[in-house]
From TrEMBL, chains A, B:
The keyword tRNA-binding does not apply. Its main location: cytoplasm. One of its GO terms (molecular function) is nucleotide binding. It comes from Natronobacillus azotifigens. HAMAP family: DHQ_synthase (MF_00110). Catalyzes the conversion of 3-deoxy-D-arabino-heptulosonate 7-phosphate (DAHP) to dehydroquinate (DHQ). It is found in: Cytoplasm. Pfam families: DHQ_synthase (PF01761), DHQS_C (PF24621). Residues 66-176 form the 3-dehydroquinate synthase N-terminal domain. GO terms for cellular component: cytoplasm. NAD(+) binds at residues 127-128, 139, 148, 166-169. One of its GO terms (biological process) is aromatic amino acid family biosynthetic process. Transmembrane segments: none annotated. The lineage of its organism: Bacteria, Bacillati, Bacillota, Bacilli, Bacillales. This is 3-dehydroquinate synthase.
C-alpha cells in the first residue's frame, strides 16, 4: 500500500492506495464514531458495498443509502433526501459519512458531510480512475439546473481510501476518462511522467503496478497544488488545463455524449495548440494525439459544431473572469500558466483545430 | 463608531458598531466586487433597504431579493430559490452577498454565500439586538423539517456592520429576546457586566450609549470564545448557557409562542437553579428573576407542560452527546462549565422549578 499525506487549512489526511483496502476499513478509521452512513450508487452497490459493510459492521453501527448511478443524482432533490435519511438514521456530530463510488458520489456525499450539522467527518472511497482527481482536494458540490457544481463547499475528507481492485470493473470508456486526468497531471508536471504514461495501452487489461504508480504520481501532483492553493485563488487553476474547451464541449454536445475525460483530452490538445502559437514553442502535440488515437479516444467532433457557441461557453466557465477567455497554457511541458486569449486569436485557432481533427 | 476584530482559521473580520453606518457602506467594502446581492426580509426592506442601496449603487452593480419575514423562510425551498436568483443575477466568485436583517436573514444569506460556487464573500448587517449574537461567529444554516439549523456551515463573514439606528424600530418582544442573549454573555463572563445590564429598563426607549456599550461587551465575550473554539468542539459550548431547556421549551410549546430569547431567559434561570444544586453555591438567581419580571419577560409556563417531554427534547438537542443531558452550568458567575446531569436529578429539579415559576 502507498500513502500520500495532504495538508489543508483545517486538517491533514492520508490518501492510501492499494489492493483489497475495502476489506480493511477499520485501519483507516481512528475515532470512535457514534454511527457510520455510507452513500453509494446503483452501479457500485452490488459490487463493493457488501465488502465494505462486512469490514465495518463488527465495530460500528452502519446505515447506507443507494442513489441512482449518473450525474442526475447530483441534484438538490437527491441531496435533500439524503440529509433526511441521515437525520432519520440518528447521525450526530460524532458520526462519519463514507462516499463509496466515483466522482458523482464523492461530490454529493461530501456536500452532505460538509453541511449536515455544519459539517461532520467523511471518508472518500473512490471506485473509478477519474475519481483519483476529484476525491483529493476537498471540492464537493451538487449541480444546479443552470450549471454544474454551482452549489458546494471546500471541505476536505478525513481520509481517501483507494482500493485499486475496484478499478478493474469499470468500462473502457471510464478508463479513458480517468486516464485523461492522469495525462493532465503529467503535462502540468514533467516530461518523464508523461513518457511513462505514453507507454500504457488502455485497450488491454491494466497492470496493477503500472496503474498504482500512475495514480500515485497523479495524486501527488494534485496534492502538491491544492496544498499551496486550497481555495483556487491562484495556482490551483493549473488543474484546469484542458478544461476550458473541455467543459464547453461537454455542455455544447450535451452531457453524456463525451465522458468528462474524453472532453478534457480534446481540450488538452487544443490548449497545447494555443500554447504553441502563444509562446512560439513546440510541445508534444503529436505524441499526445497519437496516444489518444491508439487508445480509441473519440477525437473527431461533429462538423456542425459551432465555434461561436463554444467560445461563449468558454466565457461562461465558472472560473472565467472579466470578458476574455482565460486558459491554462504550457510554456513548456511542466510549466503551466494562466493567460487571457483575445477572441480574435481564439476563433482562428479553434476553427483551424476543429478542421484538423476532422481531416485526420 | 466602535470596532471589534474577530480572528478565524481562514480570515479576520471587523465588527463595527455605531449609528448611521448603513449610509456609509463603501467604508466597509475594500475589494472591487463584480456585483453585490442583498438578501433582506419583508419587515426590513421598507425601513432600511433604500438607504443601503443608495450607499452602494454609486460604486457597484447591486441586485437584491426580499424573503417573507419569519423563521419559515429559513427553508431548503427558499434557499434554493435564492441560489437561482443569485445565478440569474450574474454573480460570480468575485461577487459579494449582504445579509440585511435579523438572525434568520443572516443565517439564510450566510448559507447562500457559503455554498454558492463553493463560497463567496458576505457581509452581515444585523438589524436586531438578538443578531448581535448570531451575526458574529460564522455559524450559518437553514432548517430541516426535522429540526432547526440541521443544514449549515461554519463560514465567517468579511465584516459585520451593525447600525444601531436600526434597533430602535424593533418591537419590545424582540428587544427582550435580544437582551436575553446579552444577559447570557454577561453571566458567562463576569459580575460587573451583569450589574450594568441589571440597571437597564427595556420598557423605556433605549439609550444609544448604553445599548452600544452592552452590544459591544456582549460581542466581545462571544468573539473571544469563538476565536478560541471556532467549530464548537469545546468551550464554544458555553454559549449554550440557558439554551438546553430554552430550545426544549421553544419546540415543546411550538415555535413562536415564546421568542428565542424569552425561552433562553427561562432556560438561564433553570441553569442557575441546577448550578446552585450541583455546586452547592449561591448565584444571582433572584436578581435575574426580578430583572426579567421588571422587564415583562413571560415567566410562568402553562401548568400542562410535560416534564418528561422536556427532558426528552433536551436529550435530542443537536449538542447532546451520549445518553444523559449535557448542560452548561456556572460554578460562579463568569465560570461556565459543561456537565452531565442524571435524569433522576434533572426531573426533580425541573419539576420544582416549574412549580416555583407558577407560584410566583
Amino acid at each position: 500500500m502507498d500513502s500520500i499525506s495532504v495538508k489543508t487549512s483545517t486538517n491533514e489526511y492520508a490518501v492510501s492506495i492499494g489492493p483489497g483496502l475495502r476489506f480493511q476499513m477499520e485501519r483507516f478509521i481512528n475515532k470512535s464514531y457514534s454511527k457510520i452512513f455510507i452513500i453509494t450508487d446503483s452501479n457500485v452497490e452490488p459490487l463493493y458495498l457488501p465488502d465494505v459493510l462486512q469490514s465495518l459492521e463488527p465495530s460500528f453501527p452502519v446505515n447506507y443509502t443507494v442513489v441512482p448511478a449518473g450525474e442526475s443524482s447530483k441534484s438538490a432533490r437527491v441531496y435533500f433526501d439524503i440529509i433526511t435519511e441521515v437525520i432519520q438514521s440518528g447521525l450526530d456530530r460524532d458520526s462519519l459519512i463514507i462516499a463509496l463510488g466515483g466522482g458523482m458520489v464523492g461530490d454529493l456525499a461530501g456536500f452532505v458531510a460538509a453541511t449536515f450539522m455544519r459539517g461532520i467527518d467523511f471518508i472518500q472511497m473512490p471506485t473509478t480512475i477519474l475519481a483519483h482527481d476529484s476525491s483529493v482536494g476537498g471540492k464537493v458540490a451538487i449541480n444546479h439546473p443552470e450549471g454544474k457544481n454551482l452549489i458546494g463547499s471546500f471541505y476536505p475528507p478525513q481520509a481517501v481510501v483507494y482500493d485499486v481492485d475496484t478499478l478493474h470493473t469499470i468500462p473502457l470508456m471510464e478508463i479513458r476518462s480517468g486516464y485523461a486526468e492522469i495525462v493532465k497531471h503529467s503535462f502540468i508536471h514533467d516530461q518523464p511522467f508523461w513518457e511513462d504514461i505514453e507507454e500504457v495501452d488502455l485497450t488491454k487489461p491494466l497492470l496493477d503496478d503500472q496503474l498504482m504508480n500512475h495514480l500515485f504520481r497523479g495524486i501527488q501532483v494534485k496534492a502538491n497544488i491544492v496544498e499551496l492553493d486550497e481555495k483556487e485563488s491562484n495556482i490551483r487553476q493549473y488543474l484546469n488545463f484542458g478544461h476550458t474547451l473541455g467543459h464547453a464541449l461537454e455542455s455544447e454536445l450535451g452531457y453524456g455524449k463525451l465522458t468528462h475525460g474524453e472532453a478534457v483530452a480534446i481540450g488538452m490538445l487544443f490548449a497545447i495548440k494555443v500554447s504553441e502559437a502563444h509562446f512560439h514553442t513546440e510541445l508534444p502535440y503529436q505524441s499526445l494525439f497519437e496516444w489518444l488515437k491508439r487508445n480509441h479516444y473519440p477525437i473527431a467532433l461533429p462538423p456542425t459544431i459551432n465555434v461561436n457557441n463554444l467560445i461563449n461557453r468558454m466565457k461562461k466557465d465558472k472560473k472565467a473572469k472579466k470578458q476574455s477567455v482565460q486558459m491554462v497554457l504550457l510554456r513548456e511541458l511542466g510549466e503551466p500558466i494562466t493567460e487571457s486569449i483575445e477572441d480574435f486569436t481564439l476563433i482562428g485557432l479553434l476553427e483551424q483545430f476543429l478542421r484538423e481533427l476532422v481531416d485526420r
